[in-house]
Amino acid sequence: MIKLKFINQVLLLVLLVAFARCNVLDTIKSLPVDIPLQGTFEISGQESSLSQSVSFCIDSTDSFLERKEDITEITFVQASLETLAYSPSDMKGDIVIEVKDAMGNTLFKNVLKDVSPGDFAGSPYSIVLYSKDFNRTNDYLQQAFASGDEICFTVTLYLQIKEGTPPYSFRGTFNIGFEAKTAL
């Protein structure tokens, strides 16, 4: 009798777990897909003000193209700057990162005052956006996606060097991440 009761309880538990799993799966309507983009900067020169721009498009990435038909929404997640190399070692100044949409409108701009590029070597600087910049970036993503336009960005890195002896050089990466929601 005890064995039968135990078997019934185990069977009931298995049925409950199976039923719960089915309900959980039914409630999931979409899956997130990461879309990482990276641009490399290689800047050098004698002047104390140097800059370079890189451009890239979300809709030319494998992550986007593989799921293009299922994507329902794209949102901004994060951005960062990492120094790979720089000289002279005592270089210091302001670093400005400006991100524009495909039409040249500024989405966000971040100014790092009196820093050394070495501050971000091996430990990327995470760019923090104000809510208005975050919303402007996501509005652009939604409008471009909904209209079928290319979803492209231009990132410009400005170095305004205050300390160090020329020639100056900087090599680093700008990483920006997006999340696409896909319908199941």
Question: Can you give a write-up of this model?
Answer:
With 184 residues, the protein is an alpha+beta fold. The chain has one domain (29-183): Jelly Rolls. Helices cover 27% and strands 50% of the residues. The chain has 3 helices and 8 strands. It has a 4-stranded antiparallel β-sheet with strand order 1-8-3-6. Strands 2-7-4-5 form a 4-stranded antiparallel β-sheet. A hairpin with a 4-residue loop joins strand 4 and strand 5. The longest helix is centred in the N-terminal third of the chain and has 26 residues, at 2-27. The two termini are 46 Å apart. The mean pLDDT is 88.
CATH fold field value: Jelly Rolls
CATH architecture: Sandwich
Tell me what portion of residues adopts beta-strand conformation.
over 45%
The radius of gyration is: 24 Å
Estimate the helix proportion, in percent: 25-40%
* Tally of discrete structural domains: 1
Mean pLDDT: 88
Structure summary, number of beta strands: 8
CATH top level assignment: Mainly Beta
How is this structure best summarized?
With 184 residues, the chain is α+β, with helices and mostly antiparallel strands.
